[in-house]
Amino acid sequence: LDDLLQGFILEGFFSHCIMTQDELNFIVKLPCLLGSWFMVLICCFQVNTLSKQLSSEFTDIMNEIWANEAVKSAVLISSKPGSFIAGADLDMIEACKTSQEVAQLSQEGQKMLEKIEQSPKPVVAAISGSCLGGGLELAIACHYRIATKEKKTVLATPEVLLGLLPGAGGTQRLPKMVGLPAAFDIMLTGRNIRADRAKKMGLVDQLVDPLGPGVKSPEARTIEYLEEVAIDFARGLANRTVSAKRSKGLMQKLTDYAMAVPFVRQQVYKTVENKVRKQTKGLYPAPLKIIETVKAGLDQGHDAGYLAESQNFGQLAVTKESKALLGLYRGQVYCKKNKFGTPQQEVKTLAVLGAGLMGAGIAQVSVDKGLKTILKDTAQQGLDRGQQQVFKGLNSKVKKKSLTSFERDSILSNLTGQLDYKGFEKADMVIEAVFEDINIKHKVLKEVEAVIPAHCVFASNTSALPISQIAAVSKRPEKVIGMHYFSPVDRMQLLEIITTDKTSQDTAASAVAVGLKQGKIVIVVKDGPGFYTTRCLGPMLAEVVRVLQEGTDPKKIDAISTAFGFPVGAATLIDEVGVDVATHVAEDLGKAFGERFGGGSIELFKLMVEKGFLGRKAGKGFYIYQEGVKNRSVNSGMDEILARFKLPAKPEVCTDEDIQMRLVTRFVNEAAMCLQEGILSSPVEGDIGAVFGLGFPPCLGGPFRYVDSYGAKQLVDKLRKYEAVYGSQFTPCQLLLDYANNPSKKFHQ
Amino acid sequence: YSSGVLPTLLLTYVPKENNFPSFLVYTESQNYLAVQPKSKKTLTKSGVKNIVVVEGVRIPFLQSGTSYADLMPHDLARAALQGLLNRTSVPREVVDYIVYGTVIQEVKTSNVAREAALGAGFSDKTPAHTVTMACISSNQAMTTGVGMIAAGQCDVVVAGGVELMSDVPIRHSRKMRKTMLTLNRAKTLGQKLSLLSKIRPDYFAPELPAVAEFSTSETMGHSADRLAAAFAVSRLEQDEYALRSHTLAKKAQDGGLLLDVVPFKVPGKDTVTKDNGIRPSSMEQMGKLKPAFVKPYGTVTAANSSFLTDGASAVLLMSEEKALAMGYKPKAYLRDFVYVSQDPKDQLLLGPTYATPKVLEKAGLTMADIDVFEFHEAFAGQILANLKAMDSDWFAQNYMGRKSKVGAPPLEKFNTWGGSLSLGHPFAATGCRLVMTTAHSLKKEGGQYGLVAACAAGGQVRHSLLLSLSARVP
């Protein structure tokens, strides 16, 4: 009878397998008819996003599991290398027209996961690779979670970064699972949690170490082993030799106890809410909605919580903030691809000239990714400082436990610090980060070209000097390219690559490949004064100076600009960049673009440089910087300078909002002009460059998305208003006028 | 195996295994051999001296914390050296050099070779040095001796190894040591007091010897469990193998085959005459143990791992002509040896797989030519994983750069008198035991070639060294 039954069940499932295999969403495996009647069903995902189709098929399978007497438990695993489930299908959400439609999607997800949670037969999630968003929500709906302890295994709810909230029960289950404070942390930051940390938090129950080579490749065998271990636990859970109850630590028990008291909970909500308001300046609705949703569940019960979750999810999905953030996410994906294809020769050895802040930063992100890196400087002292910077950068990872000291040492063994050109004959790429002076750049280019091999690319890390001007003295201008990194290199994600008319496709492919290897988001722009990023910043900073001259103090300017969504205040930004650098760039760009880059007086900067108010690096700029002092004070030495350059304020354009718009419209107008002139090849790259390189407010999605959402016509009207007061610096460019005249025209469809 | 004690012991087991020396021990000549050799091949190399093992001994290997618990490492080494002197009656002035291996160093006797030799009655004119290479330290000692003889610098070398796991150096914390050292230089009472006032409670936390691989922070047992999983070696297979080791060791002990053991009169205690870790158990009992490293679902347990052991061993090496001139009947020739090393994380314990084909190729032999295999058994899972790796074409092609597998040694020729799992594994003393067992076994079986392989910790050496050594039975 057993045999007969087994055959019957197998056949039943088998037909299902064939059906689902066509769709390529699932494979159902019936592995272990061990001994007698103990069956663990293995449900293996073939895709890594949760789509409508997947949900319905999955529900079918779950129904079959519950209906079938022979199946005692189930394991969910993915066959996609590198991911369990990386989240819900974003297209599916974007395709929805109304918030009700999205809320409906959320409710379906909630129901499906609730069914798993309430299943009388234990379901085990076997996690290898990214377990994000909906994937994590699926995993925490299961009764047991086993994750591989690999670097690629990360758990997170990144919804908040897309202006959303976990919409399939995540806001309700997480607080119960890891406690209220930890749940807020997970959901409000969206940060990645590695498997070992997840185990400590109680997010996963067991860890499986990755395996080395055996009779199969390490990757294949590790997944197989994960499945074996998961089956063991699934069986154990079903016959009750394993308990799904987690033993909570004393701290967690205490926290849970405290959180059960309504008064304490209210205090936590209040604290978190205040913190969120302070950080988001009220510009991002998602975090507040998350708090509200969690609150609803804990204070008003299960039904209210789930209802709030789906409703809020629906509402958030149609906000312009969410659309902006989603656009950035897609743009980021776009900028993580090399559109120039694979370079003919992979860069394995990289030489960096100049061990300053930038040079050492570039060396750090390169050596970190396995590139053999030469760091060359002209003076031992500078070189020592640079090498120490690289060491410090890597060592901070050791302190954070994301790297072992052994790995750090072995990474550092790929870094050679030197004062001469030894070994340059083996370099595949040279990136110069020497002082921003065209004569020095020319000198090193000539020196380098005398020692490097024919295929070696010469890249210049300059923020404003035109690459074609640098390449003018090159014997092989097709191999010269610009790679504009942002400071601090190890933290800023953007890399702006600049091609000249003569730069070859293969050179561009090489530079992009190196940038991507270094973990950067890469935009590629055409050569011109200030390229794209520096050029957009120029008019805005000129306007900042004018606003200062009109009597608005630095603190006020900072407050106004951060209120608009800039992460760093405009005056602070000048201090960070360095007043001398800003002067240099402003002069260069002023020469190239003339009146349009005018506004504030450059003499003000020059006087600041004269007085040694160079910004943060000098300890004094608009503010005074002291080691260990957090609340910096305004530099009183600036009063006299500002007084000397004082201009009469124009009350008709000096409200806070007007000041914000004066800064932003000049930025956006210049960005549009870059697109118009072909410096930028697409609005996507323009948005990504502005947000990741210059801190343009992410909630607006970048200058081009901002034009779309604010309205080109409205923006042009603003520009005209300021133009009437200040003149041609605010004259809208032709491209903006075209878009203003045709309301159906959008940069992003 | 009572499950209470052993798993804890295993955790403190110092996991130092990665280089696998594989020794080839051959027999060949008819000169002193009654048995007709199978092969005419002598493996003699032109221009290189033949090097022989004249004799080798070891004191009984004991579980740590038993009869040797109160001794110091050099005491054990002394006993082994004295045993060698007694058995061979070699005139002490003939010994040109002494090399000894040790892993966990007792700081008071950092050159334990010299301290032991002086105490054992060797000439104070005989120089001695200590080597360390994790679990293959005495292999390193022997090959160092082989090198000295081959280079014509010595004729007679004593090599050996010692480990005392009953007592390991536990240090003050770095902060405390720094304070104490600075205190030495403080001149005034004020300076001293100000230094002392900086001591905080955390200064008193002791620093235990590394229980993990330095480069990966992974304990050896953990690594063995992962290795077993990578090769899909089941718990059942591991327990069966461990049981085999104990059963065979018991048989060898009872049958008086462990000829290298010399009795040791421990001061204040009875004379120790035999190894005390051999305990054949039953599959049921072994099956009850919980995993010791990968909890709760791993497969490596206290019962299928080697245990913490105290012990020492020593061998007498000579050039063949010197041995014959002195009237000795050598036990074996030491022939080729190879050291290899691999990735310290995922292939930490796979040395024998890499080393065996290399040394065979060097000697121009095949697996079929070998009569006796002695492999160091760190863990049952590690041995079985190696056997599977050697038997896998996929592994040979993808990781060893070979066209096909070498093949696994036949079990009837493999560790037939037990191994480290049952006899014990005093890290640095194991190598000499493997060589002597091979020599005795070859003689008993009338075999010609033997192969010794072992693994050792480390991984700091990335480039390949492997050791394997060949000898022949007279």
Q: What is the gist of this entry?
A:
Chain A has 749 residues and is an alpha/beta fold.
Description:
The complex is a heterodimer of chains A (749) and B (474). Chain A is built from 31 helices and 20 strands. In chain A, strands 13-12-11-14-15-16-17-18 form an eight-stranded mixed β-sheet, with helices on both faces. Chain A has a six-stranded mixed β-sheet with strand order 1-2-3-5-7-10, sandwiched between helices. With 749 residues, chain A is α/β, with parallel strands linked by helices. Residues 1-24 and 31-37 of chain A have low confidence and may be disordered. Chain A is globular, with a radius of gyration of 29 Å. By secondary structure, chain B is an alpha+beta fold. In chain B, 34% of the residues lie in helices and 14% in strands. Chain B has 15 helices and 13 strands. Chain B has helices spanning 6-12, 73-88, 112-119, 137-150, 174-185, 189-197, 220-230, 235-254, 283-287, 320-325, 351-363, 380-390, 393-399, 420-423, 430-445, and strands at 17-18, 22-26, 51-58, 62-63, 97-101, 128-131, 156-164, 264-265, 271-272, 309-319, 332-338, 372-375, 449-453. In chain B, α2 (73-88) crosses α3 (112-119) and α11 (351-363) packs across α12 (380-390). Chain B is globular, with a radius of gyration of 22 Å. In chain B, 57% of the residues are buried. The A-B interface holds A 206, 209, 211-218, 221, 225, 229, 232-233, 404, 406 and B 214-217, 222, 226-227, 229-232, 294, 297, 343, 345-347, 385, 388-389, 392, 394-395, 398-399.
